[in-house]
Amino acid sequence: LIGYGFAGVLRNLLVWPTHALYPNQLPSISLLQSMHLGGLLNHRKMKYFWIVFTAIFCWEIVPTWMFPLLTAVSAVCIIDNGRSSFVRNLFGAGSSNEGLGLLSFAFDWTLITQASPLFWPLQTKAPFYVVLPFTGNGSTYNQTSILDAQYQLDMQKYAVLHGNNFAVSQLAGYASMGAAFSHIILWHWMELWAAIQEVPQWWYCVLFGVSLALAIGTAYADVNLLPWWSIIMFTAIAFIVAVVLSFIYAVTGFQLCTCSVLVQIVAAYIHPQQPIRNMYAKLYGYNTGYQTLYMVADLKLGQYAKVPPRSTFVAQLSGAIIGAIFNYILYKSIVGVHREDLQNPIGTRLWSGWNAQQINSAAITWGALARELYAPGKIYFQLPLGHLYGFLAPFPLYFMHRLYPSQRIWSYLNMPVILTYVGWLPYSVNGAWWPGFVIGLASQWWARTRRPKWYTMYNCEANHHLTLALVIHVNITGAGGNIISFPYWWGNPDPAISSVDQCQASGG
């Protein structure tokens, strides 16, 4: 709700201007419009909906259950037949954390959809990176072995274990956040300056004030929570984060997800060796800003749909409360059935706990071990500097644009997006990116320029139909209940022998 208060304050910058396109909202508004149109056009669109919905709902049974090899078809892996770890690391893409997925092609829309090929602009499409801390022999790090009863760093225990190896560099991911700041300053300063002079409507300010007061009140419920002054400080940081994240999202449809580290670096200095407080600092300093992103996107959807502002306000407020309840219920259901898969650093082709693992790992590394890992002279000192490197990265592109304004390529390249993709590669299911690029090229270039009528009528709707079919398919076949495994065969290999794409098993 603090984020919703921010959303109201930022409407003049992130909702009303024409540069705030929000490509991710176009499929939803296209579907809503088609459902409320009458006549022959609506009949054609509803027929199109049922064709796409039925086709993808039935098809997803094949790659997700009967023929999983289709989730990552790699000719190199099939030829190698699980013999080489090098081939797995470079070409494997059957599960998260397996490989870079070079030339691996997925036929599973569950995976392809993460590339958002039907509505992201072409400049948003380009290559993913977060990891768990591991011990030197590659096993999962026992985080509680270095913490005391108050979940703070115990230096005596840490000295005995000699620290951990935070194995994979996050430099590109950190750099993307620094690049986002300078990208907005260089390319969108005039829009930012014009919007700041507007005064928001008072009820958003009231909502923000009440929500912040409740947050401060909860700070006294537990000794490990943040003090009141820290909540106010990180809430102020969240406002800046909200502007940066939401502006990038409004223009490109792309969500940067690495700003949390910048917040946790600040928290590491203010609350050293306290992972719980570091995690709460991330909640108020980053998650609040990220929630603002979703709120302003919904406000833009309301603008597209011509919904009265007060109705939008009530709908968002009640939706936030009801949604939190249902998300908690679904969370308990999924974790109860798939706990082992979510705890496994490798995960499966369908379930991966990398997001929750990343939150937990970041709290330990930045909250408890920041001084031991990232201080000057330590092994990972360069990682926090990634924000500085990223901040400098857009400047050459901007200077080239100023020198050669007729060459559109320099304004077309978005450095925060490029750096984020580079950071994603080592831990995503990378079979999605190649088909995502091909489908995106067909959609955003060929269909948009050669078949504009079809593109306007059906392209964005197709994405919504496909997503809706996937949601229903997952809830019916995989979200809970007993797992019924399909018999092992060449197209559904035993994971103990080889990965789903016939590359070497990740544990091999």
Describe this structure in words.
With 508 residues, the chain is mostly helical. The protein has helices spanning 2-9, 11-14, 26-36, 39-59, 61-66, 75-80, 85-91, 109-112, 155-161, 171-187, 189-196, 202-218, 228-252, 259-270, 275-304, 309-343, 354-367, 370-374, 386-392, 394-403, 409-412, 415-424, 433-450, 452-477.
Radius of gyration: 24 Å
- The assigned structural class equals mainly alpha
The helix/strand series, from N terminus to C terminus, equals HHHHHHHHHHHHHHHHHHHHHHHH
**Percent in helix:** 55-70%
Q: Overall mean pLDDT score?
A: 75
Task: Determine the strand fraction and express it as a percent band.
Answer: under 5%
Q: Largest sheet, if any?
A: none
Distance between the termini: 47 Å
Shape: globular
The beta-strand count equals: 0
- Low-pLDDT runs of 5+ residues are 127-139, 158-169
Number of H- or I-type helical stretches: 24
List the helices and strands and how they pair.
Blueprint: H1 2-9, H2 11-14, H3 26-36, H4 39-59, H5 61-66, H6 75-80, H7 85-91, H8 109-112, H9 155-161, H10 171-187, H11 189-196, H12 202-218, H13 228-252, H14 259-270, H15 275-304, H16 309-343, H17 354-367, H18 370-374, H19 386-392, H20 394-403, H21 409-412, H22 415-424, H23 433-450, H24 452-477
Helix pairs in contact: 1-12, 1-13, 1-15, 3-24, 4-24, 10-19, 10-22, 12-13, 13-15, 14-15, 14-17, 15-16, 15-17, 23-24
